[in-house]
C-alpha cells in the first residue's frame, strides 16, 4: 500500500512519528516501512532534504576518522557498505572515487599513518600509505609540495539530495506518509510516556517518536522536557565549479585533519562538478545560511594548499550548509525524559554516510522501548528506474522520445534535462513541489547558468503539473514566492504582501 | 534515427541565425536549415519589447520583436527550412549534427557547412561570488525580462539592480513602468557597462540612482530577499572598510555580463579566444574547425543587434561558399591582436583574401573609457593606418575598415587605442562596403 507525500492533512494517529525529512529521518522512515506499522514523517519545509542534507560535501566517508568505539566509527563503516548495496536500486547516484588524505611533511605523514591504524581498527578495508609519486600519478593537479597520502579506496561520492529522496520515495512506496509544511510545536507526555505530537497541522497521537530534526533536534528534545544535549549550528561554506573543469581532481582530496574538522577539501561531485570547502564556524542561528566574503576567501586559500591552480573563473555557485553539532559523537538513543522518544540527533559528519545505518539502529532501539515489529509481506526494496536522457546512448534516447515526446524537449540546456524528466520528478511519489526541488532531483538549473534560462520554464511546468498559479510556485521554503501578478503588484497586497 | 542532408545548417534562430541563413541562401546555398530550440524564431529579441533596434540596419527605430520579424518574414519568403522546438545535442567536425525534438525525435543532419549562432547567456551571482544567503528573488535581468514581457509576471516590488549592463538598465525602466520601485543600480566599475542612451533613457529620466564604484557585498533574506549590503570599492575593486550601507529590497536583478554559449563548440574541440569567450575566427568567420562558422553573441558579445546581423551575413555567405567548395581552409596563419587600450578584436586571424577585396572590417572592445583617441593599425611592427575616435567606451563596439592594401602581406597585425593629442570634432566615417 502506497503512502503519501505533501502538505495534506495529518492522520489522527500513527504507530511511529519521525520528525524531520533530512537524509537521516528519511532513511529511518524507509527502514520502518519494512514493518507492519503506520509511519508518519513530518517536515516543516515543502520538501525533504532542505536543511543540512541539501548543503554538505556529498561524500561517503571511508570511516578512518572516527575514534574507535563511537557511534560515528560504527555507523560510518556500516553506512558506507549499505550505500554500496542500496544506491542503485533506490536511484541514488554514487561514484566510487576513493579518497586521499594529503600530507605535506613528515609530521603529517605520521598523522596519516595513525589514521590508517585507526581505520583498520574501525574495519575500513584497503587503506594504504602512498608516496609522493603515487599521489602525483593519481592526481596530476595536486600541490607539488605533497609528501604522500593515505589512500582510502572505499571513499566515494554520492548525491545527497537523491539519497534523501531515494529513501523517502521508497518509504512512501512501502506505505509511509510524509507530511510537509508541518512543524512540531509540542510533544505531549503523560506519565513519562510520549502520547502525541502537536503540530501546526494538528495533533497526532502516537507512542513512538524519532527525533531526527537536525538543527532543531535540541528544541524538539526540550519539548519533551529532555535537555540532555544542545545543538550548535556549525556553518561550512562551499564553492562549486562547472563540469567543464571536472577533470581537476579524480578523487576526494582531504588535507591532513586538525582537531575541529576534516579541513578544506577539493572533491569531485557525483555529477562531474568539482567543489571546494567547507570551513567550520560555530554560529547561533540555526537558519543562517549566509556565505561571507571572509569565509569564501578562507576556503579558496585552504583549497589552494591542495590544488594550487583553482579555476575560480568557472565557479557556478557558492553556498553554506549547517552541521548540527552536539559534542563529539552523534546523539543516538532513547530519551531518558520521555519513554517512546528516541533521538537521532547531533548528526554531523559522517552523517550522510551513516544515515542508512542509523535507520537500522533506530529501529532496534524502538523495539527495545516497546515497539512491536512484524515484517511486512510485499516490502519493495527498490524504486523504479527514472531514465536520465543525458546519461544514455543515442539509441536509447531515440527510444525514450518515441515513448514520450517530452523527452524530446530539452528544458535545461546546461545539463541537458528534458521536460519528461522534470514532469517525472514532479509526479513521482516523493515529487518536487518547488523550483529547487526540481533542481535537486533532476539538476535542471544546477548547471553553469544556474537556471537563468530554464528557471521561468521550470516554474511554468510546476504550475501546470501541480495545478497552481505561477504566483504560487516557490523557490524552496514555504514563503519563498518567486513571482507576482500585475494585479498583486498594483494592489500592494495579496498573497505575497 | 532519420537523416537529412543540407548545404548549410545554422544552429540558433535568433538574429545571428536568421541573418546567416538569409545570406547563405542569397549566396547560392541550395539547402539551408535553421535549428531553433525555442518554439519560435527571433531568439532573445522576442523579449526585448523596448525600442532602439535597427537604427543602423533599417534606419528606423524598431522594437526587438519588430526587428526580429523583419528577418523572420524574409526567411519565411524563402525555401529555408526551419526546425523549431529542436535542441542540438552535438555538432561534430565533418558537419554531423544530432538534434532532438518532441515531434521528430532524434535526428541526424549532415551539413557541408555549419554556422554557430547560439547566442550568449548571462553571468550569474555564482560567477561573481556575491556572498550572503540564497533566498528567492534573485534573478538575472534577462530571466526577469522574459517573465515580465512574455509571461506577464513580476519578479518583485522593490528592486536593486547589480551591474549596469544594458539588460539591467532596460529592466530598471521596465520595472518602473510596471509599478515597482527601483531603488538603485550598483556598478562595481568606475564606468557603466551599458550604452549611454540607456543610462539616460532608463535611469536618469526616472530618477533612478546609478552608483559607480560600488559593490553589493551581501544579499540577505531567508525565504525571500530582504535587502543587500553595499560598499564602495577602491581602484583595485577592493571593498573600502567603513563605507558599507544596507538597502532594503525584495528583489535583486543581476546584469553583470554575458558569456558566449559555446558548449557545443567546446565539446567539438573548437579553438576559443579566452577574452571574448567565443571562437577564434578569420575574416570569413570560419572557426578552427573547417566548415564551422560563428556569428553574433556566440562569437563575441555585441552592443547592437545591427552589428550581429552584419556579422552573421558574412558568416552565412562564407558558409555558402564553403559548401560549394570555394572557400578552402586557407591559412589562418596571420594573427590579429588587440594591443594597448583594447580588450578584444574580431576577427583574430586572417586567411588569404578573396580576389578584388578592398577592405576588412574589424570589431573591437576598448579596455577602458577614454576621451578623444586614435585607433592605430600596426602591420609587422610599423604604423600602417590611423583613425580618429571622438570618444571610447568599453560598452560600445569600435568598428573599423582597414584597406587591404594597408594590410599587404603583413604576418602580424596589431591594433591599439591611444589618447589623441587634440580634441576631435568629427570622427572618420567608416565606409560601407558594397
- Relative strand content of chain A: 15-25%
**CATH superfamily name of the largest domain in chain B?**
FAD/NAD(P)-binding domain
What gap, in angstroms, lies between the N and C termini of chain A?
A: 41 Å
Give the total of domains of chain B.
3
**Count of individual beta strands of chain A:** 25
Task: Note poorly predicted spans of chain B.
Answer: none
Q: Main sheet of chain A, how many strands, which sense, barrel?
A: 7 strands, mixed
- The CA-CA distance between the termini of chain B, in Å, is 44 Å
Q: Under the CATH scheme, which architecture of the largest domain in chain A would be assigned?
A: 3-Layer(bba) Sandwich
Topology:
The complex is a heterodimer of chains A (497) and B (434).
Chain A: E1 4-6, E2 16-19, H1 23-32, E3 39-42, E4 59-60, H2 71-90, E5 94-95, E6 99-103, H3 106-122, E7 128-131, H4 132-138, E8 148-152, E9 156-158, H5 160-173, E10 177-179, E11 184-190, E12 193-199, E13 202-205, E14 209-211, H6 217-223, E15 232-241, E16 252-255, E17 265-268, E18 274-277, E19 281-282, H7 293-304, E20 315-325, E21 331-334, E22 341-345, H8 351-368, H9 394-403, E23 410-412, E24 417-418, H10 419-427, H11 435-442, H12 455-466, E25 484-485, H13 486-491
Chain B: E1 2-11, H1 15-26, E2 32-35, H2 64-76, E3 81-83, E4 87-92, E5 96-101, E6 105-116, E7 120-122, H3 125-128, E8 138-140, H4 141-151, E9 153-154, E10 158-162, H5 166-177, E11 181-187, H6 196-203, E12 210-212, E13 214-220, E14 227-232, E15 245-248, E16 251-254, E17 258-260, H7 263-267, E18 292-294, H8 305-323, E19 334-338, E20 342-346, E21 349-350, E22 359-366, E23 373-379, E24 382-389, E25 398-403, H9 404-407, E26 412-419
Helix pairs in contact in B: 1-2, 1-8, 4-5, 5-6
Amino acid at each position: 500500500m502506497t503512502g503519501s507525500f505533501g502538505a495534506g492533512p495529518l492522520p489522527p494517529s500513527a504507530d511511529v512519528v519521525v520528525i524531520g525529512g533530512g537524509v537521516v529521518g528519511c532513511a529511518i522512515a524507509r527502514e520502518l516501512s519494512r514493518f507492519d506499522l503506520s509511519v508518519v514523517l513530518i517536515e516543516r519545509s515543502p520538501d525533504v532534504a532542505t536543511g543540512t542534507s541539501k548543503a554538505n560535501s556529498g561524500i561517503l566517508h571511508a570511516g578512518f576518522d572516527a575514534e574507535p568505539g563511537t557511534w560515528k566509527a560504527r555507523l560510518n563503516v556500516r553506512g558506507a557498505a549499505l550505500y554500496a548495496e542500496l544506491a542503485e536500486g533506490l536511484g541514488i547516484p554514487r561514484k566510487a572515487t576513493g579518497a586521499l588524505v594529503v600530507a605535506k611533511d613528515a609530521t603529517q605523514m605520521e598523522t596519516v599513518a595513525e589514521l590508517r591504524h585507526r581505520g583498520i581498527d574501525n574495519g575500513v578495508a584497503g587503506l594504504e600509505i602512498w608516496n609522493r609519486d603515487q599521489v602525483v600519478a593519481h592526481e596530476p593537479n595536486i600541490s607539488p609540495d605533497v609528501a604522500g597520502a593515505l589512500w582510502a579506496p572505499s571513499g566515494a561520492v554520492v548525491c545527497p539530495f537523491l539519497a534523501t529522496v531515494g529513501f523517502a520515495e521508497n518509504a512512501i512506496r512501502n506505505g509511509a506518509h510524509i507530511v510537509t509544511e508541518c512543524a512540531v510545536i509540542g510533544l505531549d507526555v503523560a506519565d513519562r510516556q510520549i502520547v502525541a505530537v502537536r503540530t501546526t497541522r494538528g495533533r497526532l497521537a502516537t507512542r513512538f517518536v524519532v527525533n531526527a530534526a537536525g538543527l532543531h533536534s535540541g528544541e524538539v528534545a526540550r519539548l519533551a522536557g529532555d535537555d540532555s544535549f544542545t545543538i550548535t549550528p556549525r556553518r561550512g561554506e562551499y564553492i562549486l565549479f562547472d563540469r567543464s573543469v571536472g577533470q581537476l581532481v579524480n578523487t576526494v582530496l582531504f588535507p591532513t585533519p586538525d582537531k575541529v574538522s576534516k579541513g578544506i577539501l577539493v572533491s569531485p561531485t557525483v555529477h562531474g562538478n568539482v567543489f571546494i570547502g567547507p570551513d567550520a564556524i560555530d554560529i547561533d542561528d540555526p537558519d543562517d545560511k549566509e556565505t561571507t566574503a571572509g569565509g569564501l576567501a578562507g576556503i579558496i586559500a585552504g583549497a589552494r594548499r591542495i590544488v594550487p591552480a583553482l579555476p575560480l573563473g568557472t565557479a557556478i555557485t557558492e553556498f553554506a550548509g549547517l552541521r548540527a553539532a552536539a559534542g563529539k559523537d552523534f546523539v543516538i538513543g532513547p530519551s531518558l525524559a520521555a519513554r517512546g522518544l528516541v533521538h537521532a540527533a547531533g548528526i554531523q559528519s559522517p552523517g550522510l554516510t551513516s544515515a542508512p545505518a542509523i535507520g537500522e539502529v533506530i529501529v532496534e532501539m524502538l523495539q527495545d522501548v516497546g515497539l512491536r515489529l512484524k515484517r511486512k509481506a510485499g516490502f519493495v526494496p527498490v524504486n523504479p528506474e527514472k531514465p536520465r536522457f543525458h546519461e544514455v546512448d543515442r539509441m536509447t534516447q531515440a527510444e525514450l522520445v518515441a515513448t514520450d515526446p517530452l523527452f524530446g524537449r530539452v528544458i535545461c540546456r546546461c545539463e541537458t534535462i528534458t521536460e519528461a524528466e522534470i514532469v517525472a520528478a514532479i509526479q513521482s511519489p516523493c515529487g518536487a513541489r518547488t523550483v529547487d526541488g526540481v533542481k535537486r532531483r533532476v539538476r535542471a538549473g544546477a548547471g553553469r547558468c544556474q537556471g537563468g534560462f530554464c528557471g521561468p520554464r521550470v516554474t511554468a511546468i510546476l504550475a501546470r503539473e501541480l495545478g497552481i498559479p505561477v504566483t504560487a510556485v516557490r523557490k524552496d521554503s514555504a514563503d519563498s514566492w518567486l513571482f507576482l501578478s500585475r494585479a498583486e503588484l498594483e494592489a500592494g497586497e495579496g498573497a505575497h504582501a | 534515427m532519420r537523416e537529412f542532408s543540407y548545404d548549410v545548417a545554422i544552429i540558433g534562430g535568433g538574429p545571428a541565425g536568421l541573418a546567416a541563413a538569409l545570406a547563405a541562401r542569397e549566396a547560392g546555398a541550395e539547402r539551408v536549415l535553421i535549428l531553433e530550440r525555442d518554439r519560435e524564431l527571433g531568439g532573445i529579441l522576442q523579449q526585448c519589447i523596448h525600442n532602439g533596434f535597427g537604427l543602423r540596419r533599417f534606419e528606423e527605430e524598431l522594437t526587438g520583436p519588430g526587428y526580429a520579424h523583419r528577418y523572420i518574414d524574409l526567411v519565411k519568403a524563402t525555401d529555408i527550412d526551419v526546425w523549431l522546438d529542436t535542441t542540438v545535442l552535438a555538432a561534430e567536425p565533418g558537419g554531423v549534427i544530432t538534434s532532438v525534438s518532441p515531434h521528430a525525435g532524434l535526428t541526424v543532419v549532415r551539413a557541408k557547412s555549419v554556422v554557430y549562432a547560439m547566442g550568449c547567456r548571462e553571468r550569474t551571482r555564482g560567477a561573481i561570488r556575491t556572498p550572503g544567503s540564497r533566498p528567492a528573488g534573485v534573478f538575472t535581468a534577462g530571466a526577469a525580462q522574459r517573465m515580465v514581457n512574455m509571461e506577464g509576471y513580476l519578479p518583485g516590488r522593490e528592486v536593486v539592480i547589480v551591474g549596469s549592463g544594458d539588460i539591467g538598465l532596460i529592466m530598471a525602466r521596465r520595472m518602473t513602468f510596471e509599478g515597482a520601485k527601483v531603488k538603485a543600480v550598483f556598478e562595481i566599475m568606475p564606468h557603466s557597462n551599458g550604452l549611454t542612451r540607456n543610462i539616460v533613457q532608463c535611469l536618469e529620466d526616472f530618477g533612478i540612482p546609478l552608483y559607480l564604484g560600488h559593490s553589493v557585498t551581501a544579499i540577505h533574506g531567508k525565504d525571500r530577499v530582504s535587502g543587500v549590503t553595499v560598499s564602495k570599492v577602491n581602484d583595485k575593486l577592493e571593498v573600502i572598510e567603513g563605507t558599507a550601507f544596507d538597502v532594503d529590497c525584495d528583489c535583486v536583478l543581476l546584469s553583470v555580463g554575458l558569456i558566449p554559449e559555446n558548449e557545443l563548440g567546446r565539446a567539438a574541440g573548437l579553438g576559443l579566444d579566452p577574452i571574448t569567450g567565443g571562437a577564434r575566427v578569420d575574416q570569413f568567420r570560419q572557426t578552427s574547425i573547417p566548415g564551422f562558422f560563428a556569428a553574433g553573441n556566440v562569437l563575441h558579445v555585441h552592443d547592437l543587434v545591427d552589428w550581429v546581423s552584419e556579422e552573421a551575413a558574412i558568416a552565412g555567405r562564407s558558409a555558402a561558399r564553403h559548401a560549394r567548395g570555394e572557400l578552402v581552409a586557407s591559412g589562418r596563419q596571420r594573427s590579429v591582436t588587440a594591443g594597448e587600450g583594447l580588450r578584444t578584436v574580431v576577427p583574430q586571424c586572417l586567411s588569404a583574401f578573396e580576389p578584388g577585396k578592398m577592405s576588412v572590417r574589424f570589431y573591437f572592445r576598448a579596455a577602458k573609457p577614454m576621451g578623444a583617441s586614435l585607433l592605430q593599425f600596426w602591420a609587422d611592427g610599423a604604423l600602417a593606418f590611423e583613425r580618429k575616435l571622438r570618444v571610447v567606451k568599453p560598452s560600445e563596439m569600435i568598428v573599423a575598415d582597414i584597406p587591404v592594401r594597408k594590410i599587404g602581406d603583413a604576418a602580424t597585425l596589431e591594433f591599439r587605442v591611444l589618447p589623441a593629442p587634440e580634441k576631435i570634432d568629427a570622427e572618420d566615417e567608416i565606409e560601407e562596403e558594397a
